[in-house]
Amino acid sequence: GFCRNIILSNPRRRNALSLSMLRSLREDLLHDVKSKELRVIVISAEGPVFCSGHDLKELSSEDDVKHHSQVFEICAEVMTLIQKLPVPVIAKVNGLATAAGCQLVASCDIAVASEKSQFATPGVNIGLFCSTPAVALGRSLPRKVALEMLFTGEPLSAQEALMHGLVSKVVPEDKLEEETMKISQKICKSSKSVLALGKATFYRQMTQDLDTAYKMTTQVMVDNLTLRDGQEGIEAFIQKRKPVWSH
């Protein structure tokens, strides 16, 4: 299996999620999604800012309400798409992630950050509360941590982000590439059909009560055993050999 790298590459605009940036991000996320070999997607960025969020020039009153709606709608679509994709998506963060950029990190399945990275939702300071970023933030951070970020706009350090669960790992900047690759290569050894089933199931059960979640996942485990790769993996384990995935 292979890893697809998506790089936000407009450092002069601090990798702002303009309408065109959001459209190309959506396109990139969907690009190889049907490929039997794709196993993982890594999102990284050029320059000192991972992503500064929406392009505020597009949100000034010169643009009409229809344009503003478009920007937020496609942004929500991209954020939810990340969780709907059949492969894990890793954010590789080296620098500042603010507002919708922080939302992007929170929306990824895994996030690896360098020690210098920071995370903030500073919209309140310019009179535009980060209500859409709050959706992703409130689902990956304890409520009081999320609300402090939203009400004050003060950034979390990489270590604080790790402590509260916004990122999975924090490493020195010179180890960021290596650490992300390590996780990515581990995922690449797995079966795509098994990863797809597991990811979709995880997000579904998170919104359910305990009994419903167990009922649903019990059925999924049974279904997983009917997959060719499910049986192959078990046989390989019993025979002490490496599994050969069908896809």
From TrEMBL:
Mitochondrion among keywords: yes
Gene3D superfamilies on file: 2-enoyl-CoA Hydratase, Chain A, domain 1 (3.90.226.10), Lyase 2-enoyl-coa Hydratase, Chain A, domain 2 (1.10.12.10)
A single GO BP: fatty acid metabolic process
Main localization category: mitochondrion
InterPro entries per UniProt: ClpP/crotonase-like_dom_sf, Enoyl-CoA_hydra/iso, Enoyl-CoA_hydra_C, Mitochondrial_ECH-domain
Subcellular locations according to the entry: Mitochondrion
CDD domains with a match to the protein in the record: crotonase-like
Signal peptide range: none
Chain coiled-coil ranges: none
GO cellular component terms, A-Z: mitochondrion
SUPFAM superfamilies membership: ClpP/crotonase
Matching Pfam families: ECH_1 (PF00378)
Record keywords: Fatty acid metabolism, Lipid metabolism, Mitochondrion, Transit peptide
GO MF, one annotated term: hydro-lyase activity
Family per record: Belongs to the enoyl-CoA hydratase/isomerase family.
PANTHER family in the record: ENOYL-COA HYDRATASE DOMAIN-CONTAINING PROTEIN 3, MITOCHONDRIAL (PTHR43602:SF1), PTHR43602
Function field: May play a role in fatty acid biosynthesis and insulin sensitivity.
Protein name per Swiss-Prot or TrEMBL: Enoyl-CoA hydratase domain-containing protein 3, mitochondrial
Organism: Trogon melanurus (Black-tailed trogon)
